[in-house]
Write a structure and sequence with these properties.
mainly beta, four-stranded antiparallel β-sheet
Length: about 260
């Protein structure tokens, strides 16, 4: 869809499936970009500068806004901006790290992960700002709301995670299936009727799989010839986006007259 030197990460389809938002450092710093679903009309939305960390950008349900996190001072903070660009609006900035945003389907809440309680847990905050509410106590790092708005699915840990679920209003936390185990928190995508996931993203010929909720079955969708990660999908489940690592470069440097 789009390629460049450097990294192109964390893609997500717009709710209508016509656009894609992503992270790219093609101009030297990691910024948020948007393009059509075929890669045309690529446009940079932000000018964040040399931040040390920028989190995945996520569309609001109406496609009018984008939420994301980036390092703001000593910690990662949450921001919201208009989908056509402009000055990001601070949503949450405090003495903790707040990362990995996603929206509720009614646009009233933004889910995120925070270490404010001493460990990574799933929280939510009103999208216009306000008091944050903690949803999990057993761990959580990246969350998405179910289509009916009643549940939240999340990667339990940053590395080697299972996918768990909790009511969107809080309550019992439970694993989805012991057959879903990932290398990293970003290697899965929730759609209306199931979960796409890639259990072995760091190897060639790894499979993208699909867990169907109704039948509890898992099927192979496709084989990735090169390592891929950052799995996401269109809302109707017809298309999957992922980042493919085509080449890794490194240089050997010689320092002369070293003392």
């Amino acid at each position: 869809m789009t390629a460049s030197g450097g990294r192109n990460w964390a893609p997500q389809f717009s709710p209508d499936g016509q656009r894609v938002v992503l992270l790219s450092d093609r101009l030297g710093t990691m910024e948020i970009w948007v393009c059509k679903k075929d890669g045309a009309e690529l446009m940079r939305l932000t000018n964040l500068g040399k931040t040390t960390s920028t989190g995945p950008p996520r569309w609001s349900p109406d496609g009018q806004s984008i939420a994301f996190d980036f390092s703001y001072g000593e910690h990662n903070a949450l921001f919201v901006m208009k989908a056509e660009g402009g000055v990001p609006r601070p949503l949450l900035h405090d003495d903790s790290d707040n990362v990995n945003v996603s929206w509720s389907h009614d646009k009233k809440w933004i889910y995120f992960s925070s270490n404010r309680a001493g460990s990574w847990q799933i929280w939510k905050i009103p999208s216009e700002g306000g008091q944050s509410l903690q949803l999990t106590k057993l761990g959580g790092f990246a969350a998405f709301e179910s289509a009916d708005g009643k549940s939240v699915y999340y990667a339990k840990t940053p590395s080697d995670p299972e996918i768990w679920t909790v009511p969107s209003s809080g309550g019992e936390e439970a694993p989805i299936s012991p057959r879903i185990r990932l290398q990293q928190w970003r290697d899965w995508a929730l759609v209306n009727d199931g979960i796409f996931f890639c259990p072995e993203r760091s190897v060639r010929n790894s499979a993208v799989k699909f867990l169907r909720f109704a039948s509890a079955t898992i099927a192979d969708i496709t084989i990735l010839e090169k390592p891929g990660d950052w799995i996401s999908a269109s809302e109707d489940g017809q298309f999957v986006l992922y980042n493919q690592s085509d080449r890794w470069d490194s240089n050997i440097m010689m320092l002369e007259n070293f003392r």
